Known about the structure:
The protein is mainly α and 309 residues long.
Amino acid sequence: MTTDTAALxxxxxxxxxWETTAATAIRARKRMAIRDYIQTLDPExxxxxxxxxxxxxxxxxxxxxxxELALFRxxxxxxxxxxxxxxxxxxxRTQKRYDDTVLILSEILESGGYxxxxxxxxxxxxxxxxxxxQIPNDEYLYTLSTFILEPIRWNEKYGRRxxxxxxxxxxxxxxxxxxxxxxxxxxxxxxxxFDQFNRDFEAAEFRYSPDNEIIALATRNLFLSWFLPKSLxxxxxxxxxxxxxxxxxxxVGLKPAPRWLQVVVRAAVRWRGRLEGLLPPRRKPRxxxxxxxxxxxxxxxxxxxxxxx
Length: 309
């Protein structure tokens, strides 16, 4: 490892200016102190700080799960999955592909945003990876919409509280700026318009194809491998299916869970959120960039993230 590579290992601290301005809310014993602090911020000007506070303090578990679901929804777009199968990243190196995606996005969220050295480097790395392929603009737009909307929808169903309008708008401004820096065109001019685009796109483009199923099975089995041996994955699969809607399941060729299991699993996740609401507020951020990724047990450099060729 070169000295330069070693210096780029995941060593960033949370942005000091944000921690300082939010310090009173973070230290407070009141459960809604950070939410109330966020309400004093401007959703457009302060979108990076709001994204950091919501994803690292308020809803770290929910944000991770909802963004996993956001990535999974992309597999329902039949015209986009042949490229995903062709690259081999999702099938042959599924864990690495997952870790790389999580770490690149987390570097932007956790390092102080897209204007910091690490955040900028992560965005450049992401653009370099995507620039190797001819990806239609509408597919970029759809993926971007899922990053905005799935956390909002997840928290409405399962979080300890829904996102406030300030938090929703901040998410829109945060991800739209990332989209602009990726060169994505024709980004809808409001959250409501992006929500409509998302729904219309799924209605038009969600349909089954074998490539959808290949990618979805590889990713679902990756999730199950974290908890179950291969011989028992069939037991866990319906629990994952229970959190997915019928339209998505049909598009990726997965069997819906029994209705009773859907009710049980969704109720359990809702109760997890409610129980979390009874716990003391988080005093320290949960940073995915500081957790040992399975692909990088000794740490990583941003330049290592992405496709192997």
